[in-house]
Structures are given as structure tokens and as C-alpha cells.
Amino acid sequence: MSTIEFQQVSRVFKRDGQDFLTLDQINLQVADKEFVAIVGPSGCGKTTCMRMVAGLEFPSSGSVKVAGQEVTRPGPERAVVFQQFALFPWKNVHENIAFGLRQRGTPAAEIERTVKHYIQLMNLVGYETAYPHQLSGGMQQRVAIARAYALEPQVLLMDEPFGALDAQTRVVMQEELVRLARKNPRTVLFITHAVEEAVYLADRVVIMTSRPGRVKEIIDVRAIREQERWDRHSTIEDVMDEASFVHLRTHIWKSLRQEHGDSDH
Ligand SMILES: Nc1ncnc2c1ncn2[C@@H]1O[C@H](COP(=O)(O)OP(=O)(O)OP(=O)(O)O)[C@@H](O)[C@H]1O
Ligand SMILES: [Mg+2]
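^ thats the input. predicted complex w/ adenosine-5'-triphosphate below
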């Protein structure tokens, strides 16, 4: 059971010898195989939260647990996808996806099977031997997502993974992520600035306040999605026309706007 749990998590950073409270008593529980999106003003501490789950950053007080264990270091059961496609430029698509599995000592035949599977799922067939500089931004990000999924991590952490993509590619990636998430459900923490993306992808959306970041509101999108049967629609545009979707999006927008208004910079 790969749950994520923030218990009374606060984080203080030092700047110019002064303490700045960045995160203020964050409480959040992500259930096993739940997809939770976090939205919030720039600088409210979203990336810091994710880095704590990844084991790259630690709370000043409180605790972050994955599967009931306090996080003390990075681990292969938690994979991270960053905004900037962090591929190895000197390795081709196949080698990039296989890298983590090789490091882990997975048998060659199994690596082949897994890499092939995710190459197919992420629509990269025919590009196995291409190098990152020969791919579009969207394709590079598909490789990064395939690489994260290929490790079959229990927990996937994605920090604005589509932030650098153009609008059309972004929509394609969102639909592919939904497809992948249905086929291979994982516990996902997904940071985005795009409200529509959060509502479209997530089971629940967490809205954070401006600095110091607190949990302002948590919206259960799944209940509404199931009630309104958004799954009847195949494309994001169709879902976005639904009155219930528009209502949620507007609600989140207003909540975020308030935070921008209150911010001290
Ligand atoms: N290692 C660090 N040392 C000092 N300050 C830090 C450090 N990491 C983050 N901060 C500060 O903590 C605050 C939150 O940063 P964080 O990157 O978590 O925000 P964010 O919500 O992800 O913002 P954005 O939406 O712009 O990506 C910022 O004010 C940042 O300057
Ligand atoms: Mg960030």
C-alpha cells in the first residue's frame, strides 16, 4: 500500500541570515493509487513538498511518510519527472528508458520486455534509436514519463511535467497520461499551474495558499467525475465543456486568485 502522508509538515529556509517560513503545517494524505494534483501560487512550496516525498529535502518539523515509513533518502520505489526533460543526451530512447532498470540489475530479457511495453504505451515505436536532440519536446517528455513508469515505482512524483510543452502537445500528453494511469494505476503527486489540467487528471486537487504554503482547500474531483460521468467523453475538450467541469475550474481559479491578491510581493 503506497500511501503518502504529510503530518504537520513545516519548513523554514534561511535567506540572508533570516528564517523564512515556507511551509506551514501541511497535512495531506494520498491514498494508494490515488492521483492528487497540487496547485498554488508560485513560491508557495509545491516543489519543496515534492522533494520531501522524493527524499531530496526534509521538514523542519513534522513528518513525511511513504507506505507508513518516514522518508529519509531517495529510493527506487519513488520516481520523479521534472519540468525540464532530464534525459541523458548521449543515450538513445531505448537506453534512456532502460537506464534505471540496468542500474537495478534487472535481467536483460526483462529489461527488453519492459522497455518495449512502455515504448508502445507512450507512442514511441520507431524512435528507439533516436537521441533526445532528434525528438520534439513532447516526445522527450514521453520518454521521461516512460522511463519513470518503466521502473514500476509505487509512487510517481511529477513537477509541472508538461509546463514546457506547447498547448497542443500538452493536451495529447494529458490524454496519454490518463490512459497510462488507468492501465497502470500508481500513487501520483502531480504539481501544475494549469487548473484545467489538475481537474482533468486528478482524483483530488489540493489548493495551497501563498507563502507560507498551507493547505487551503482539497477538492474531490473523482466524486464529481463519477457522478457526472465525464468518462463518456474521449477528449479533454469535450470534458472541458461540461457544466460541472467549468464550475470546478472557476471555483479553483477564484480560490487561487484570492491568494495572488493576498500575496506580499
Ligand atoms: N534550498 C533552498 N534554500 C532556500 N530557500 C529555498 C530553497 N528551496 C526553496 N526555497 C524557497 O522556498 C520557497 C518555495 O519554493 P518552491 O520551489 O517549493 O515553490 P513552488 O511552489 O514550487 O514555486 P513555483 O510554482 O514557482 O515552482 C521559495 O521562496 C524558495 O525561494
Ligand atoms: Mg515549483
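The chain has a mean pLDDT of 91.
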